[in-house]
Amino acid sequence: MMKKILLTLALGALLTGEISAIPPGKYVLQARADLLEKSREIALGEIGTVEKSGRNDGEVMKYNAVMGWRNSRAPYCASGVYWCYAFAADALGINRREIPIPQTGLANGIFAYAKKFGKPARYSPEIDDLIVWRYRRSSRGHIERITEVGEKGWVTTVAFNTEIISDGRQLCGVFAKRRNIYHPIAKLTVRGLVGFEKIEREEL
Known about the structure:
It contains 5 helices and 7 strands; from the N terminus they run αβααααββββββ. It has 204 residues and is of the alpha+beta class. 31% of the residues are buried.
């Protein structure tokens, strides 16, 4: 009887979203190797960019501007990721239509795109992968780019629209973060990884 009650409670929790019914997944998109490398270089160069007053303002507003949102103080984690690709494409003389991710300010929009158009892959992190989190029952979330891979799911990322404590002060902006591909961030749960299959120039 007790087993039946527990099974009923667990099923109810799954249906109401009280526990995660879907484990994290990974989907892979094709991308130019030179665009991946250049955009990573640009992303690493943005580490240390900080907001003017902690309200998504100042120099960080350039990330949302690439979306066409001038003077926007909207969250910029996803637009920061796209901004790096956009400026890498410009630097390489590549049409921005070759950017492998969609032009969107929604972290989960990027994951949904990869799930629809990419190939399923083993859930394992690689450099240049994007790790995506989301709030339960919401389209809102967060995204970061993996730049180093460690053991047991630990990675280093470039994280736009995050914060650190420096000399007792809270700074908001772009920072390197240590994350785990299985771990939540506060109320954000891991949705999965967006990976890339590198295409060399001679293959294009």
